[in-house]
Design goal:
The complex is a heterodimer. By secondary structure, chain A is of the alpha/beta class. Chain A folds into two domains: about 50-180, no CATH class; about 190-380, no CATH class. Chain A has helices spanning about 5-20, 25-45, 75-80, 115-125, 150-165, 190-220, 220-225, 230-260, 270-290, 300-315, 330-335, 335-350, 355-380; strands spanning about 50-60, 85, 95-100, 105-115, 130-135, 140. A six-stranded mixed β-sheet of chain A has the order 2-3-4-1-5-6, with helices on both faces. The model of chain A is unreliable at about 170-175 (pLDDT under 50). Chain B is α/β, with parallel strands linked by helices. Chain B has helices spanning about 50-55, 75-85, 100-110, 115-125, 140-150, 170-185, 195-205, 220-225, 270-285, 300-310; strands at about 10-20, 20-35, 35-40, 65-70, 85, 155-160, 190-195, 205-210, 215-220, 230-240, 255-260, 265-270, 290-295. In chain B, the strands form three sheets. Chain B has a six-stranded mixed β-sheet, with helices on both faces. In chain B, strands 11-12-10-13 form a four-stranded antiparallel β-sheet, with helices on both faces. Chain B is elongated, with a radius of gyration of 23 Å. Chain B starts with 7 loop residues before the first strand and ends in a 6-residue tail after the last helix. Classes of the chains: A alpha/beta, B alpha/beta. The interface of A and B includes residues 13 and 221 of A. The structure holds adenosine-5'-triphosphate (ATP) and magnesium ion (MG).
Chain lengths: ~375, ~325
């Protein structure tokens, strides 16, 4: 039985819900300011190339009388190329080698001289990433080849040492073939912003809608309201409308900020983005109604919301790609609503995707929302 | 009274309700004649709220039948909701909505507009507070708002659950006055639950005494008090000691009840001339001496004590 919509009642419910929301001082901060701050913090931390510092152990030779570095190739390199630490104590590094690189970031290698056993211990602890031993007259590098960071350090230093030995004093760096990806759409911030937007949608729907319903039920306000001829559907429509509008504003502010500060752009279709945005809102609003359909205990509500939100926060690749998770888990992860939404939004932002790409996820998200909404309504406790 | 006539706006027939381990309402039948105010009086846990909420259709009875204006709730929900005005024992409204906005919202549920909101603001004397957030209202103001919301749709039937509990006497009088003036301008009927005798006495035509899910007695105040064969209640205290718990002995020609600590006790006497001397002798024989003796008009409280041995509000 579909009843006619009562516009006046719906408007009063919507305006009351909106006022209630906006008069809560935390809403603006957590909904709008906080995501922007998070984008700023993470964007700066991961986008600006910082100096990479690595510590390296060098096995100390026996310094007998008449000691010379002539038969110790690596010490020879360090003496020639490294900056000797003038205030060297046993705690401090002995040589420093800097590699300046505007494109790939600066490296700073600190060399510590120590006996072999200490070096091995520090390697185990992860204090140093490689051990260099030239006491036999040959330069030997010891490191875990599975540790990609140690591997990189090895490549950098051995390359540098070889080039210095080969053509002394000439610039060892070759300029060719290094072309860092700084194109729009490939930076971390480009990855992050769509994730923050979709995470915002999920959080806002789940906490906003679920919590409002549970709280109104626990305060018996829900019961008081349905003891009038109020249309139950109007109550839920008002709640969802206000949330979706707020989500739209939140997402827009976040995007505007990212555009102005980091030059993040939407490369794909804007109408497609709006459709997937609405589909995502519908999905999470439906789930929120389902989650809050029965309990009147805010603690239980808390747990239920976390139960839904937490796994997706971790698995859906909001902050870091989910492709590092085990192969077998990917098909599952990719079917989570938040993953679907995030992947679709990202592809529109960064890959220039349009309708054809998002049609399927949008359809699935809307269906998910509708199913949960219907099921939630079926078991909804108004009293 | 339990007879069903066309004039009854509410009819409750043999209604039962239990929660997990508690039988909250055990076979209650009652009716409300058109235009009458009925008080439902009983101690905590008597089942008043449960009964009223079943009449309001926000709880379903396990058994029995409830009709409002001759109609069952099923299938008539929309119409009946428009006929009744309710206030729950405890409701919070939306904290950060003003009095005016809250009334507007509830008015919209009944398709009523601004005009009715103004009338309610006048009726409840909340004009000064119209722009205050609900959360900043005093207890009395909040109850007035709840009552205003109950009255917003010109209800023919009012169902109010403890509308004055926790209020000071002044705030209570204000609520009473609102109800009295509403009664003057409408043909309303009402069920009101309360712990306060005075409230039942001043507002209501008919009183139903409830205890442990059942109706104990019912009638007008006069009927209830006369009912008891002209018994009188005399309150007394004793010198220098407390009244022992075993003061009421079987076989005595009168009944004695005492309060929890033994500071005070009440003796119920049928025939003053004959039993009073017996009572005084008995007290002396127990080694007590009377300090204070007061014969007063019998109240509902006394009736309740004589029926159950317990007090309504304790
Ligand atoms: N939702 C519930 N679940 C379990 N037991 C309940 C529930 N509601 C009421 N009860 C129990 O039913 C009995 C009657 O409760 P009810 O609220 O109707 O009493 P009351 O007469 O309104 O009391 P009061 O004067 O304190 O408001 C009580 O024993 C109460 O504990
Ligand atoms: Mg009650």
């Amino acid at each position: 039985m579909v009843k006619r919509i009562k516009p006046y009642q719906l408007w009063q419910l919507t305006s009351a819900t909106a006022k209630e929301l906006l008069r809560e001082p935390g809403v603006i901060f957590w909904g709008i300011v906080f995501p922007v701050l998070m984008a700023l913090g993470l964007g700066l931390a991961f986008t600006k190339k910082a100096v990479t510092v690595r510590k390296i152990a060098v096995v100390a030779p026996e310094r007998t009388e008449g000691f010379s570095v002539s038969h110790l190739p690596f010490h020879e390199f360090l003496d020639k190329y490294g900056k000797k630490n003038t205030v060297a104590s046993t705690e401090d590094y002995m040589w420093r080698v800097d590699i300046r690189d505007d494109k790939l970031g600066d490296y700073e290698f600190l060399f510590y001289e120590m006996d072999r056993n200490t070096a091995v211990m520090l390697l185990k602890r992860g204090t140093v990433s490689i051990i260099i031993d030239d006491t036999s007259g040959e330069t030997e590098y010891h490191f875990d080849p599975l540790n990609s960071d140690a591997h990189l350090t090895y490549l950098k230093i051995s390359g540098l040492a070889a080039s210095v030995r080969g053509k002394a004093e000439t610039d060892y760096q070759s300029e060719d073939e290094v072309r860092p990806l700084t194109l729009s759409g490939t930076r971390y911030i480009d990855f992050l912003i769509p994730g923050l937007i979709t995470m915002g949608i999920m959080m806002s729907c789940m906490w906003g809608i679920s919590y409002t319903i549970i709280e109104k039920r626990s305060k018996k306000l829900l019961r008081r309201m349905v003891a009038t001829p109020m249309r139950k559907s109007h109550f839920l429509i008002a709640l969802i409308t206000v949330r979706v509008t707020l989500n739209f504003i939140e997402s827009f502010v976040l995007f505007l900020f990212a555009f102005l500060v980091f030059d993040v752009r939407i490369q794909g279709s804007l109408p497609a983005l709006i459709i997937i945005f609405l589909a995502g809102n519908i999905a999470f609003a439906g789930i929120a109604v389902f989650v809050s359909s029965h309990t009147s205990n805010t603690e239980v509500g808390n747990g239920l919301i976390n139960f839904v939100v937490m796994p997706m926060m971790v698995l859906s690749g909001i902050f870091f790609s989910y492709h590092n998770f085990p192969e077998w888990s990917l098909p599952v992860i990719q079917k989570l609503p938040l993953t679907m939404l995030t992947d679709a939004v990202r592809s529109i932002f960064n890959e220039g995707a349009g309708f054809s790409f998002i049609a399927m996820p949008a359809l699935i998200l809307v269906a998910t929302g509708a199913i949960f909404f219907a099921a939630g309504l079926k078991i909804f406790k108004w009293y | 009274m339990a007879k069903v006539t066309a004039e009854n706006v509410i009819e409750v027939r043999d209604v039962w309700k239990s929660f997990k381990s508690v039988q909250a309402v055990r076979g209650v039948s009652m009716s409300v004649p058109r235009g009458k105010f009925i008080a439902l009086v009983g101690p905590n846990g008597a089942g008043k709220t449960t009964l009223v909420e079943m009449i309001e259709n926000i709880r379903r009875p396990d058994n029995g039948e409830i009709r409002i204006l001759g109609k069952k709730w099923k299938g008539n929900e929309e119409e009946l909701r428009r006929t009744i005005g309710i206030s729950l024992q405890q409701t919070y409204f939306i904290d950060k909505l003003t009095v005016y906005e809250t009334l507007r919202l509830f008015a919209s549920f009944f398709d009523l507009d601004r005009e009715r909101v103004e009338e309610i603001i006048n009726l409840t004397g909340l004009d000064e507070k119209r722009k205050s957030y609900v959360i900043n209202l005093s207890g009395g103001q909040r109850q007035r708002l709840a009552l205003g919301i109950a009255l917003i749709n010109h209800p023919a039937i009012l169902l109010l659950d403890e509308p004055t509990t926790g209020l000071d006497p002044n705030a209570r009088y204000e609520i009473w006055n609102i109800l009295k003036s509403y009664r003057k301008t409408s043909e309303a009927s009402m069920i009101l639950t309360t712990h306060y005798m005075e409230e039942a006495e001043t507002l209501c035509d008919y009183i139903i005494l409830m205890d442990q899910g059942k109706i104990l007695r019912e009638g007008t105040l006069q009927q209830l008090l006369e009912d008891d064969k002209g018994e009188k209640v005399i309150e007394f205290t004793v010198e220098n000691s407390l009244i022992p718990p075993d003061i009421d002995k079987p076989g005595l020609p009168f009944k004695i009840t005492r309060d929890q600590e033994g500071q005070k006790a009440w003796v119920t006497i049928k025939d003053f001339d004959e039993q009073m001397p017996l009572f005084l002798t008995y007290i002396k024989s127990e080694g007590l001496s009377i300090k204070h003796l007061e014969c007063r008009k019998k109240t509902l409280d006394d009736l309740f004590i004589s029926l159950t041995g317990r007090r309504i509000d304790g």
